[in-house]
Amino acid sequence: MLSPSRRRRRAVGLSLAMAAMSVVVLAGCAPGGSDPGAPQRRSVNTRLADEPITIKLYTETNYTLYEELAHEFQRQHPNVTFEITKERYDVLLQNAPRLMASDNPPDLVRLDVQTDQVKDNLLLDLDPYADAYGWDRFPPTQLAPLRVSESGQRGEGSLYGYGINHSVTGVYFNKELARQIGMNEPPATMGEFEELLQAARDAGLLPIMQANAAGEANMTYQAILNQLLDRQTVEDWIYNVPGATIDVPESVAAARRLQEWAEKGYLNSDANSVDYTSMVGRFAAGEGLFMFLGNWQAAALDSEMEGNVGFFLFPPEDAGRPAIAMSTPGSLVIPAKAENPDAAAYFLNWTLTNSTARQTVADVGGSVPGGDPGRPLPDVAPGSVTEQTQEAFQDVAEGDGAIGFLTNATPGMFQNTLAPQLQLLIGGRTSPEEFAAKLQADYEEDLAS
């Protein structure tokens, strides 16, 4: 837990009071131009127009934050209407490239930046807006996951996404069930965590409520992997550093551990047929001591399990090691062919500069808003699980333990590789060695295509 001094709200830094302005900037040529490699000058307007505007938002069904932000923006700006389309995230990933390339693309898409989207000229380069709005005040680590260079290197180059909220992943636990097995504090090591799994099993409780119908167990697998494999190796693989590999003994060991948990009955037997929504609903109803998930679910669990839910970062193999957890910006992108890019960018900037919007990020998203670190943090209820996830985020950030998601390593890694391979692994139909080898083989094939 954070000390009282760390809980103090940060002083407000310089305000971003931008005068209505239109600046001419150097930007990459839009799709369809005669020379895609040649820059052209275009106007970036930071003033929201007075006439009626419709912003088309394409987002995911399991996360309502962006929808709630859109509603609040409409309330503050009555001339703006949001047209919102929602789909399950794995379906969104499949459909987004086609929609962004169409003649009627969305203006905003909930999407993590991928190199193929940049290569195919589907995303708008946001550097001109970053210059106009002063996003250079953001910590570089907030923007790095959203950058892609001209050579296709992720983590550097131009900015193609905007991170509104910052995730942190860990383990939720049911306090009442924890008391039944004598769990008085979070485990300090993976060994202690596994002792709790067995204690729950011996007490007739389900140790872990797990979904995996669409590859949701990727968070459980990577939580284990993060503690066994050095952080740089994982990051190099996610960011496509030449020569990076995940077909190593530590990846095999992580897969074996997850498979053994399934074999020992630590996961619900129907995990491979349970979807995200059902997992969360069953956990909230009291089924399962633990659930691997991120802070985006904290606000809802505070409401559904008031006072009976806690959160901790997944522990290391050895006590005392710094916390390592998946923690990335939840990003929105503007398609290159968007009809209203200026209005979309205005909305993005509003999400992290407007006090009500920042509070919404905490209240609905259960997460820490990004942006200028000089701005005050939103208020959260003392003792809530949202407070615990925010403290966990600060612990990870201060210890430089944030790491990306394996699912974002290549465009097809989540749907085409991790999801089906995790089904096979948990179902006992592939070996840990085959699992790690398949991840690497598909990764190399994706990068070569």
TrEMBL record:
Keywords: Signal, Sugar transport, Transport. It comes from the Bacteria. This is Multiple sugar transport system substrate-binding protein/raffinose/stachyose/melibiose transport system substrate-binding protein. PROSITE patterns: PROKAR_LIPOPROTEIN. The lineage of its organism: Bacteria, Bacillati, Actinomycetota, Actinomycetes, Kitasatosporales. Residues 1-27 form the signal peptide. The keyword Transport applies. It comes from Streptomyces aidingensis.
